[in-house]
């Protein structure tokens, strides 16, 4: 009768102490800081993404109103991306300023978006894949 009680008390201690002992070092260690994505990923200069408010129709009249809403900026194009999302691209500087877009900054663009009454949200264009993984996610077998 003493043996089952001894095993019942000792088993949890043995299992908790050995849980990570048999794992390879890569699975046992916490993720490295170098593999983490930077806190401030780089936005595409002069490009913004915005979403129309739910009541705003997705048509040519709205597109014309959007160009007027950002007329104080030098807009190159406003491109539909689907599901009421658009990409706004500002013109490049024409004064020989090393080809950088004349970007007024996020705060000014958000103010203009709010004043338009058409836009629900506006954000900088942070492209996917700016920081690709260092190792492929799949091995050669497709798993």
Secondary structure layout:
Elements: H1 2-18, H2 25-28, E1 47-52, H3 60-69, E2 75-82, E3 85-90, H4 106-116, E4 119-124
Give the biggest sheet: 4 strands, antiparallel
Which structural class do you get from the secondary structure elements?
Answer: alpha+beta
Q: Mean of the pLDDT scores?
A: 76
Shape: elongated
Order of helices and strands: HHEHEEHE
**Strand arrangement in the largest pleated sheet:** 2-3-1-4
Record field, number of beta strands = 4
* Total number of helices: 4
Q: How helical, in percent, are the residues? A: 25-40%
Instruction: Pick out the low-confidence regions.
Output: 33-40
Question: How far apart, in Å, are the first and last alpha carbons?
Answer: 50 Å
Evaluate the radius of gyration: 27 Å
Q: Work out the strand percent.
A: 15-25%
What is the compact description of this entry?
The chain is α+β, with helices and mostly antiparallel strands and 143 residues long.
């Amino acid at each position: 009768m003493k043996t089952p009680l001894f095993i019942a008390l000792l088993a949890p201690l043995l299992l908790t102490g050995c849980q990570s002992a048999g794992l390879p070092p890569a699975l046992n260690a916490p993720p490295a800081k170098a593999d983490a994505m930077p806190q401030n990923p780089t936005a595409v200069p002069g490009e913004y993404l915005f979403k129309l408010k739910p009541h705003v129709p997705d048509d040519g009249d709205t597109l014309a109103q959007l160009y007027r809403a950002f007329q104080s900026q030098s807009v190159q194009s406003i491109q539909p991306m689907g599901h009421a999302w658009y990409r706004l691209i500002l013109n490049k500087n024409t004064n020989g300023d090393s080809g950088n877009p004349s970007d007024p900054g996020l705060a000014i663009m958000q103010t203009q978006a709010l004043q338009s009454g058409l836009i629900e949200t506006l954000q900088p264009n942070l492209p996917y894949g700016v920081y690709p993984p260092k190792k492929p996610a799949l091995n050669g077998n497709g798993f």
